[in-house]
């Protein structure tokens, strides 16, 4: 076995028992401003975690560091046991990481099905092929499955520009699930949704495969606490408190700092 093959084999073997995500001493500076300071965070495979905090707490910067959009100033990032601190975003995607963004990034002039198909194609080995998909194309079948999973079957032929805002957010979830990711970062998926759409989002996230872990950033604590099994509170770029949803919801310090003394 070559040295490279040995390294790859050991990495694959290690991911079987490694944590999905490990952050150690993660720090991100913007000049003299510390957006993140000494973040230590561990997420188990299949774990669903909410990261909460007020605006400016460092939540989106945390996601940007995990995905490689911002390199950390200090600290390490490990995905399934592998140090990816200095990997570019596309290499993290190849290792099973996906993300949604606060601002919709969709092809408005294409149909729902075409958007999802392109996402599936983009993370496949055939992404640079110019051949048209066949009727029995496996990627098209995967796209159809994702459309059904996010409750958009009746809109599969609809142009994305004609979808409601809530449907566009559902579509973004489908795009993030393309290629069977192992870990997903959801950045405020409930923002701008109606109460009915939020309930539907909760159902979609709750029904994701059990092996697929995720972190959700969300201002709507009713959504976050219903889909997460653990919660990390952030304040001024630091981890302020961690616990189970019920513990965080009833914590006096959390209520005083974020909820104005109570939460109904």
From TrEMBL:
Which Pfam families does the UniProt record give?
A: ABC_tran
Q: Has keyword ATP-binding?
A: yes
Report if keyword Kinase is assigned.
no
Give start and end of each ABC transporter domain. 21-261
* Gene Ontology MF annotations: ATP binding
- UniProt keyword terms in alphabetical order: ATP-binding, Nucleotide-binding, Transport
Entries under PROSITE patterns matching the protein: ABC_TRANSPORTER_2 (PS50893)
Which Gene3D superfamilies does the entry mention? Answer: P-loop containing nucleotide triphosphate hydrolases
Name under which the protein is recorded: ABC transporter ATP-binding protein
Q: Which organism is it from?
A: Paralimibaculum aggregatum
Q: What is the lineage of its organism?
A: Bacteria, Pseudomonadati, Pseudomonadota, Alphaproteobacteria, Rhodobacterales
């Amino acid at each position: 076995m070559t040295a490279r093959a040995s390294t790859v084999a050991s990495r694959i073997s290690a991911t079987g028992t490694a944590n999905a995500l490990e952050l150690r001493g993660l720090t991100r500076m913007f000049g003299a401003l510390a957006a993140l300071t000494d973040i230590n965070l561990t997420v188990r495979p299949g774990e669903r975690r909410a990261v909460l905090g007020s605006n400016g707490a460092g939540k989106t910067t945390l996601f940007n560091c995990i995905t490689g959009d911002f390199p950390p100033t200090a600290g390490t990032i490990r995905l399934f046991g592998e140090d990816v601190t200095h990997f570019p975003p596309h290499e993290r995607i190849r290792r099973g990481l996906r993300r949604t963004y606060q601002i919709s990034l969709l092809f408005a002039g294409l149909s729902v099905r075409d958007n999802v198909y392109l996402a599936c194609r983009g993370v496949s080995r055939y992404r640079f092929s110019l051949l048209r998909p066949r009727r029995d194309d496996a990627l098209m079948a995967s796209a159809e499955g994702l459309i059904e999973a996010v409750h958009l079957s009746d809109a599969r032929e609809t142009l994305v520009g004609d979808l409601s805002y809530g449907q566009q957010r559902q579509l973004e979830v489908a795009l993030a699930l393309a290629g069977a990711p192992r870990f997903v970062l959801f950045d405020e998926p409930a923002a701008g949704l109606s109460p009915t759409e939020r309930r539907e989002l909760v159902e979609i996230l709750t029904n994701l495969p059990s092996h697929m872990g995720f972190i959700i950033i969300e201002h709507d604590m009713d959504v976050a606490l219903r889909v997460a099994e653990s919660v990390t509170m952030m304040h001024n770029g630091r981890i302020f408190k961690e616990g189970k949803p019920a513990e965080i919801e009833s914590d006096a310090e959390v209520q005083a700092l974020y909820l104005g003394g109570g939460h109904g």
